[in-house]
Design a protein that fits this description.
The chain is 39% helix and 27% strand. It starts with 6 loop residues before the first helix and ends with a strand. The chain has helices at 7-10, 16-47, 59-77, 88-98, 126-134, 192-204, 206-209, and strands spanning 82-86, 136-144, 147-156, 159-172, 175-185, 188-189, 218-224, 227-232. The strands form 2 sheets. Strands 2-3-4-5-6 form a 5-stranded antiparallel sheet. The chain folds into 2 domains: 13-47; 59-232, no CATH class. It is α+β, with helices and mostly antiparallel strands. A hairpin with a 2-residue loop joins β3 and β4 (159-172). The protein is built from 7 helices and 8 strands; from the N terminus they run αααβααβββββααββ.
Amino acid sequence: MPDSVPLAYQNQPAPPAAQKKNMWRLIFRIRRWSTYAFAVVTLVLVVHKVPPPLVATSAQAAARVEEKFEAVEKAVASGQIATLRLDEAELNSYLSTHLELAGSGTPNPDPAGGPQGAPNTPTPSSQEVEQMRSNVRDVRVQLIEDRVKAYVVFDVHGKDMTLQLEGRLGAQNGYLKFEPVSGQIGSLPIPQSTLESAVRRLMDSPENREKLKLPSDVSDLRIRNGEIVANYK
């Protein structure tokens, strides 16, 4: 029968090499589970349904927009300088009667609270953007001081997700200009650098460039005091 290990040896600490190996093993486990936890939290935030903002819409507001467009067209045709002003209710009412939303088959008369949606990547390709555009289920716009905040619902592979973008509108060399301030997919904020890169790619791509071209008689476009203000020359 072999002799038992003396008690003095049993109480001795592990060799340095073994301690180092155990430490790296612990660090690896912590990093692995931290990665899993981060991925789960990110997924939960992305798919979390953000409630839609409350915006007013009415048939009367939509009719006012049509009247304002007609007045501006008459002024421009007669050689006069004109200014078009749209408040939040008028803008949303106009969009709700002119946008073809996925699943409706007809223009949506009232963007009621439907399921939420957004793209599943902060930097989509042009093809992905076009596909998501065709799957838009709801659009709501808030005008906040000098900024616009858009809430969009997308159907992505049968899953409704939300995209929110906030920024400043402007006109530059005859094209619409958008300067992003913040954005989020679901409840997950988009890093500012990623957001700016994605918007720049979308606005500079040949597929979208002509879509952003303003009418030749629009000299300026911006948001002032919660209204869209377009100057015509």
